[in-house]
Specification:
By secondary structure, the chain is an all-alpha fold. Helix content is 69%, strand content 0%.
Length: 126
């Protein structure tokens, strides 16, 4: 991810959301670039997805679906990255498409979070 893309993705996000959104984009990129994912991207993504769910107000419209979309995209990128290009000649193209889809899902999540209110410490939702 370029510095400009990173700044654009994080623009307008509260600090309690920005680092996790950035980490999700990095996890997708690393899973796509590693060639043989070992599940690290999935574990990293899950930790950040849980952090975002914990930090965002419970009634944020679309949050659950956006989190699920990112989770699904990370799993897809990891699964495709495990394929051998020798056995699947279209693997690289499919992996690039899955990476793009994953980054779009992170972008959608960022848009949801730009409209979200952070959970207030000591509220009924803690």
């Amino acid at each position: 991810m370029t510095n400009d893309a990173d700044r654009t993705l994080r623009a307008g996000l509260l600090p309690c959301f920005a680092l996790s959104v950035q980490a999700l984009a990095v996890a997708i990129g690393s899973a796509a670039g590693s060639g043989a994912s070992d599940g690290t991207a999935r574990r990293t993504a899950e930790a950040h997805l849980l952090t975002l769910r914990r930090n965002a107000a419970r009634d944020t419209p679309g949050l659950s679906h956006a989190l699920d979309a990112v989770r699904s995209a990370v799993c897809g990128v990891e699964e495709i990255s495990r394929l051998s290009s020798g056995f699947d000649p279209g693997r690289d193209e499919l992996l690039a498409l899955a990476r793009t889809h994953g980054l779009l899902a992170v972008g959608f999540l960022a848009e949801i979070l730009r409209r979200a209110k952070p959970k207030v410490a000591g509220s009924e939702f803690d």
